[in-house]
Amino acid sequence: DLIVHVRDITHPETILQKETVLSVLRNLNLPSHLLDSMVEVHNKVDLVERYKPTEENALTISALHGHGLEELKQEIEKKILTSTGKKILTVNINLEGPQLSWLYKEATVQEVEVMPEDGTARVKVIISSSAFGRYKNLFPN
């Protein structure tokens, strides 16, 4: 669904390495949307004083120090959701009903926050539009 190209920007041949990787990917006859949506990541920015990427959409990180990793995670999540046609939603459910079981079967449950005082839960899911449509039909409230 997504290609993430991580480069060591301190390597003296980083530009040549990028071209080699792109050439190999093109020779694999991958769908063009994969190459067009590729996430370009420049690693080791902590080793280059005031580093600014030359590529327009490149993300800068330092895996060693954790710099930029949250932004990278968000970008990957956004692109995966776009390419798969899914979305992240939080739904409130009644724990006495079958909703939670249904969500575990038909979606990816990320988080369940139970409110024991009223027998409900707030459930964060990754779900396709079609599955969410079925959910709303089955559980209109």
TrEMBL record:
<dbReference type="InterPro" id="IPR016496">
    <property type="entry name" value="GTPase_HflX"/>
</dbReference>
<dbReference type="InterPro" id="IPR027417">
    <property type="entry name" value="P-loop_NTPase"/>
</dbReference>
<feature type="domain" description="Hflx-type G">
    <location>
        <begin position="1"/>
        <end position="84"/>
    </location>
</feature>
<protein>
    <submittedName>
        <fullName>GTPB6 protein</fullName>
    </submittedName>
</protein>
<dbReference type="InterPro" id="IPR030394">
    <property type="entry name" value="G_HFLX_dom"/>
</dbReference>
<dbReference type="GO" id="GO:0043022">
    <property type="term" value="F:ribosome binding"/>
</dbReference>
<dbReference type="GO" id="GO:0005525">
    <property type="term" value="F:GTP binding"/>
</dbReference>
<dbReference type="InterPro" id="IPR045498">
    <property type="entry name" value="HflX_C"/>
</dbReference>
<dbReference type="Pfam" id="PF19275">
    <property type="entry name" value="HflX_C"/>
</dbReference>
<dbReference type="GO" id="GO:0005737">
    <property type="term" value="C:cytoplasm"/>
</dbReference>
